[in-house]
Structure formats: C-alpha cells, structure tokens
Amino acid sequence: MSKTVTESWAAMEPKAKVVPYQLELPALGPNDVEVDVEYCGVCHSDVHIIDKEWGDEASRFPKVAGHEIVGKVSRRGSEVRELQIGDRVGIGWYRRACLSCQECIQGYENLCPHGEATCFGASQGGFSRKTIADARVAFPIPKEIPPEYAGPLFCGGITVFAPFRRFGVKPGDHVAVVGIGGLGHMALKFAKAFGCKVTAISSSADKIKEAKEYGASQFINSSDEKQMKEAQGTIDFMLVTVPKKLPWQQYTALLRRNGKMAIVGAILGNVEVPVMTELMVRQLTICGSITGGRALIKDMLNFCALHQIFPKCEVTTVDHLNEALDRVRENKVRYRMVVKL
Q1: Nearest Cα to 148, choosing from 318, 34, 316?
Q2: What residue stretches are annotated with the Enoyl reductase (ER) domain (predicted)?
Q3: pTM here?
C-alpha cells in the first residue's frame, strides 16, 4: 500500500520548540491500522526524548513525540479482523511486538526484544494527525471512558495498574503510594478500587486533601521523621512513583515482613538496601515494573470502565502543544496533560 504524508508537530533538534512538520508514515502492513488521532497525552517521557535526556538511541531528529494516543481507525490492513473502520482505539508506549518470542508468548509484549516503541528512536509518535500501529496493540476503548481522558491510561495508567496484578495485591492489603503526581494519583484510585487500605506518602503537605479524594485513608508526610517512624512495619505493598532517588532504608522500614516494593518511577541510580538484615531476614521483595502486556491493558481498560477511574487531566489544543510541553517540563501539571488534535 502507498505511504501517507500527514501533518505533525516535530522538534527539529534537542530542546527545540515543536513546529509543523510533514511526516511520511510507513506503508500500511497487512496487520496494521491507520488511526486518525483525536487526542494525545503529553508525558514526561516525551520531554525526556525531545530534550535528548535519554541519549542518541532514544532521540533522533526531527522527532515527533507522543505515545498516549487516542483516535479512530481510518484504514486497516488485509489481515485485520477485530477492528473496524471508525472504531476508537488507544495506542501506548509500544506500537508493535513480534508476538512470537518467549516474552510475548508469556504475555509480556511490553518486554518484547523485537518490538517497536511508539516514539522512541527512529519511530515517530502521536503528535500527528495520523499514525500507524499493529492492530493487535491498538486497543478498543470502552464507551464508558471519555476519549479525552483515555490517552494517559495507555502509559501512566498501565504503569501503575500492572504491578497490582503482577505482584498479587489483594483486597485488605495495606498499600502505600509514594508520590502524588501523574502516576501516583491514578495509583491511589486503583488501590481503593482493589479494596485495599490506602496510604499516600508525599513530601507535599498541600496534596493531603487531593490524596484523600483519590482514595487515600491516611497520609504520611515523608519529611516528618515522627510520621515515618510510626508507620514502620505496617505496609504490605509499596508503589514508588517518584522519579528520584530516595533514602531507601527509610522506605523499606515501612514494609511488613514479606512486604513488597515495586518501583515504577524512572529513577537513575541504584537502590541501596542491606541484603542480610533487610532483604533476607525480613524476606522483602524489591522489584521494578514497566507498562504491561496486551492482556493487562485490556484488563485495566475494563477495570477503569467498571469503576469509573480516569486520570485528572488538563486538556488543551495542539496549537498550544509547546506550552503544554513546558508545563510538563516544569512539573506544573496536575496531573496529566492532553492535547486535542
């Protein structure tokens, strides 16, 4: 099939403002769909890529970022059966997976070594009128989820939802969410809907009211030594959503014996915890998690539709994309940014 040229918004060099750009889309393959983009979230990962903070491998210019895509199918390849023209779908961090490697077969398409990220490296993302993805990783959006709020679910949403399923969180568990931002506020909503006792941990005391509105029954100010000490040994599962290094032993001390800590914040550096006196004697688990496979994404969408869980979003138009990127860059958004194409 012939290639399509579409209007997009690209950074022409690192840290540059995005400008209109005529983007040539790849040819539509037999398992692909072409999607008319309606909305695209603006994630901090987009800023990292535009600003070349993750190096040459992540950022090739001109760069069209954007990986929280919502739109309607406008064309489909000859082998596509499940999606119809006009279906509203979402596309997240990856637009392809091989579906035949060990990771894919086990349901970890997000870990596919042969996959293609949506806007990483040479791939061009969703700040565009149209995009192309494998139909098998383009997910129908339940009608109960407003399309303007759906995009962030395909990155931030699945990032915090997946650990609840992956690490066996169950009703009645005491869950702590570290950081009340773009990831953390959604994690609080999920934890409450899972039937957990929910504690928010943050150094921002001004977020107490919002944290409780999102599902927290308790709030710990991490700058308050007394509050942190009183909470020691009370947490079954801790989700770390902040992208910064923490005084790790202060946080592992909050876990009960056999407790788990899952890290989803993009933290540079190491996690330093004594092996014998912490990990072994108290039988703690410290692990990472990144997005989720196809089954988990479908599970999350159905869960959100059932429990009416949506991210808190600021929605603007693509004419204000540079302002939106700057607000994300300066951490001024509460809590997710979305542009309408």
Answers
A1: 316
A2: 15-339
A3: 0.96
